[in-house]
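Researcher: Structure prediction, please.
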Amino acid sequence: MARGKIQIKRIENTTNRQVTYSKRRNGLFKKANELTVLCDAKVSIIMISSTGKVQEYVSPSTTTKQLIDEYQKAKETDIWSSHYERMQRELMKLKEVNRSLRTEIRQRIGESANDLSLEKMHILEQDMENAVKVIRERKYRVISGQTETFKKKLRSAKDIHRNLLHGIDAGNEDPQYGLVDNGGDYGAVIGR
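Model: Predicted structure follows.
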C-alpha cells in the first residue's frame, strides 16, 4: 500500500512535531551513513531542534572542523574571518568604552583634572554637585526614618514607664495590689 503525499507545513501539535522530527532525523542520519559507506563521502550534518538540543552526524574518522576546512578550500572562502572581524570590532568598541569610563573615574576622583578644559571642569563640577545633592537627600531620608523609629521606641518606653509608675502608685494605695510580669521584653523597647 502506497502512502499519500503529505502537505509540507509546520505541525501544530508539539508532540506530533517532536515525533516527526525524531523519525526524520534518524532517517536523515541513516541516509548520511549509507552515503558515507557506499560512496566514501565525507558527510556532516548539524541539527538544532526547537527545544535547543543539538544533534550531529559526522562521517567516521572525520571531524566537523576538518569538513569545514575542506569546504572553505573548495569554495575558496573563509567563513570564520567575517565572524572574527565582527568580534574584533566589538572588542575595540568595548575597549574604548572601558578606557573612557576609566578616564572619567580618574577625573571624578581628581587624578586627571589637568587634562580637562575649563568647560569640561565646569560640567564635571556640576555632575559632582548633583551627585552630592542626591546623596545628601538619601542621607536625610535615612536619618529621618531612623529618627521616627527612635521616637516610636521612646513613646513606647514612656508608656511602659507611665504604666509602671501607675502600678507602683496603685500598689502603694492598695497593699493587696501586685505587679504581674506578663513576659514583656522591656529592655528591647528602651534599646538595651
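Model: The first strand starts at residue 44 and ends at 48.
Researcher: Thanks, that helps.
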